[in-house]
Write a structure and sequence with these properties.
The protein is of the alpha/beta class. 29% of the residues lie in helices and 19% in strands.
């Protein structure tokens, strides 16, 4: 008997580092940068790629999927931003609260497994995450511990800017989190 594909919404998809090892999936990836979306398409030509606003797409389509992964932009939350402030290399900005809007929205309106990923912030997170490496994960399931190495696990290409590759979630971690979502279905944090 054929197992139905898992319908996945991959928001702020970047070049798809988190998605590299997912199997038996039908993915809709949303990315607002056309050049990055085109790079994603070269890695995952079978995925449906939407060039647009991931935050708005989530609001309109959240109930159409079996799994949701969101990686909202992290620069305003990053410890690197704070590190450069005293040196005058960047100016202070308000943290982008899209991250917390999506956590609250998904926790209250979604029954399927979801994960919102972001970097460890320079401040104490307003909503407690689970942590793996340099990333925070807000989910409605438990992520099991994992040992992983960062080197050699990223999707990447010399044609893609270093920042896009650096911003990728480690591919093995992305697969581990995805697998945990279905191993632990129904066991909320």
């Amino acid at each position: 008997m054929r197992v139905p594909k898992i319908k996945v919404l991959n928001l702020y998809a970047g070049i798809g580092g988190n998605r590299k090892f997912w199997r038996n999936v039908e993915v809709t990836a949303v990315e607002n940068n056309e050049a990055i979306a085109n790079a994603y398409k070269t890695f995952f030509p079978g995925d449906n790629v939407v060039i647009g606003d991931a935050h708005e797409y989530l609001l309109k389509h959240f109930n159409e999927f079996d799994f949701i992964w969101s990686s909202p932009p992290c620069p305003t939350h990053s410890r690197m931003r704070k590190a450069f402030l005293p040196r005058g290399r960047i100016k202070p900005v308000y943290p982008d609260m899209t991250l917390y809007q999506e956590i609250i929205f998904l926790k209250h309106h979604v029954k399927v497994p979801f994960v919102i990923e972001n970097v460890n912030p320079y401040y104490e997170p307003l909503i407690k995450p689970q942590k793996l490496g340099r990333h925070c994960f807000w989910t409605n399931f438990k992520i099991l511990p994992i040992n992983f190495t960062v080197q050699g696990d990223l999707i990447g290409s010399s044609k893609i800017k270093h920042l896009e590759v650096k911003n990728c979630v480690n591919s093995k971690v992305g697969n581990h989190v995805f697998t945990c979502a279905f191993k632990n279905r129904g066991k909320e944090e």
